[in-house]
Amino acid sequence: MWAITGGGFYQKLLNFPKTISRPLMATSNLIRVSSPAYSTGSPNNVPSKRVGTHSGSFHCDEALGCFMICLTTKFSNSEIVRTRDPKVLEGFDAVLDVGGVYDPSRDRYDHHQKGFEEVFGHGFNTKLSSAGLVYKHFGKEIIAKELQLGEDHPNVQRLFLAIYKNFMEAIDAIDNGINQFDTDKPPRYVNNTNLSSRVGRLNLDWMDPNQSPEKENEAFQQAMALAGSEFLDSVRFHAKSWLPARSIVMECIADRYDTDPSGEIMVLKRFTPWKLHIFELEEEMKVDPPIKYVLYEDDRGKRWRVQAVAISPDRFESRKPLPAQWRGLTDDELSKEAGIPGCIFVHISGFTGGNQTYEGALAMARTALKILSI
Predict the structure, then answer these.
(1) How far apart are CA 108 and CA 111, in angstroms?
(2) Which residues of 267-302 are buried (b: 16+ CB within 10 A; e: fewer)?
(3) Are the C-beta atoms of 81 and 51 separated by less than 8 Å?
(4) DSSP letters for 55-81
(5) Which of 42, 74, 69, 81 is nearest to 220 (CA)?
(6) Distance from CA of residue 172 to its chain's centroid?
(7) Which of 24, 239, 263, 323 is 20 to 30 A from 148, comparing alpha carbons?
(8) First CA to last CA distance, the chain
């Protein structure tokens, strides 16, 4: 089971039985349950390795960690066994989230023991969960398989870091009880929609009369499917969308002086999710002065947009919002005020505006730079 075939990982999800809520294909795999351990396997394909994790209530980190480790060459066709018996765990080929040992040389990936402070590195300082440990040691291999590249390829390294930042780190932090913000104030709202919360809700409800190990193991399998599918979604998004977008934004930043001698206006040759990349690339490419406006064509209306760059990735405020006297105006009134033909609108906050033509949008950005520099 857990075979990876062809060029993608979604084949793995096809091996889950019909009991999972996601619309997955049925296979000949059987679920063998023996209390207190849980295993998955096929009678025609004897698992070559056994991966252990704890029984009882589960969390996102061990569900995802078990899923990811089975994507590797070393642990493909493995069975997952859930138990807390230390003697049983000792005989397994890998152990996740239980056992009190972190030793990658023996494939032991627990993070609960006293003195454990392992982090991902590369500038990330969040303490790792069992999923983070598996990703740290096997993430490059998993990504390299998806990209069909060697593990030492620069794109593999880029995605290795990006997926940790945008997907894995939150799982590590939530499992280790690390707040997202450095504040003692209570949150303004409750958010229980993250992956860790959704996996947690798959645990048996205390009101359910059936609290059997078999029912618990079925729930854990659903948790693996949920966490694993979202991990694979993230890998595929970063490989097929994030990485190409990065290359386009890098080229556009390099060509910015062809647009305007200030170097503060960038034109997208084709629309791409530039906000995901511009801040990191500015730092990497040592862009100075920083870019203030990005121009791109709105494919839906075949009109041009001028958008002010935010002060940081997680802030709405702009580095140089469009001039206050333009904000909230539209069409002829805006064109008259700006002295630029073809204007369509400027948002009341000044973060974006539009023009009928590229030349008009460029004139809006250039004029805004002049007005705001006075």
Answers:
(1) 10
(2) bbeeebebebbbbbbbeeeebeeebbbbbbbeeeee
(3) yes
(4) -SS--HHHHHHHHHHTTSTTTTTEEEE
(5) 81
(6) 13
(7) 24
(8) 67
The CB density around residue 23, as the number of other CB atoms within 10 Å, is: 6
Strands 265-267 and 293-298: parallel
> For residues 364 and 371, what is the distance between their CA atoms, to the nearest angstrom?
10
DSSP string, 274-289: GGGTHHHHHHHTT-SS
Cβ atoms of 59 and 199 within 8 Å: the answer is yes
CA distance 31 to 51: 15
Q: Residue 157 corresponds to which tokens in the numbers above? A: 């390294």
- Please state the domain extents for the chain: 48-178+196-239, 245-368
Residues, the chain, total? 374
Contact 101, 95 (CB under 8 A): yes
pLDDT tens digits, 2-43: 322 333 444 455 454 333 222 222 222 323 333 344 444 444
C-alpha 224/C-alpha 323 separation (Å) is: 51
| Share of residues in the chain with pLDDT > 70 (%) | 87
How does pLDDT run across 209-264, given as a tens digit for each residue? 999 999 999 999 999 999 999 999 999 999 999 999 999 999 999 999 999 999 99
DSSP class of residue 28 equals S
| DSSP 3-state of 24 | coil
The secondary structure of the chain in percent helix, strand, coil, rounded to multiples of 5, reads 40, 15, 45
Amino acid at the residue 352: T
What's this model's pTM, rounded to 2 decimal places? 0.80
For 322-358, give the secondary structure using H, E and C. Answer: CCHHHCCCEHHHHHHHHCCCCEEEECCCCCEEEECCH
Query: Are the beta carbons of 84 and 38 closer than 8 angstroms?
Result: no
Q: What is the CA radius of gyration of the chain?
A: 26
Print burial letters for 83-113: b (CB count within 10 Å at least 16), e (below 16). Answer: beeeeebeebbbbbbbbeebeeeebbbbbee
